[in-house]
Design a protein that fits this description.
Elements: E1 15-17, E2 28-30
Antiparallel strand pairs: 1-2
Length: 56
């Protein structure tokens, strides 16, 4: 699951809470569009959760 990412070994990310049901022990999500985590490209709906600006 997921929409790809640009993260590398020493990337700095902003973390929020939120469980992932199918991954035991994972209780965090990365905030897209902040620090080193870029937003999702070509996202049209549900943009605020993925750090995407309103398309022109």
């Amino acid at each position: 699951p997921g929409i790809g990412h640009n993260l590398q070994e020493h990337s700095v990310v902003l973390v929020r809470g939120g469980r992932v049901k199918d991954l035991p022990g994972v209780r965090y999500h990365i905030v897209r569009g902040t620090l080193d985590a870029v937003g999702v490209k070509d996202r049209k709906q549900g943009r605020s959760k993925y750090g995407v600006k309103k398309p022109k």
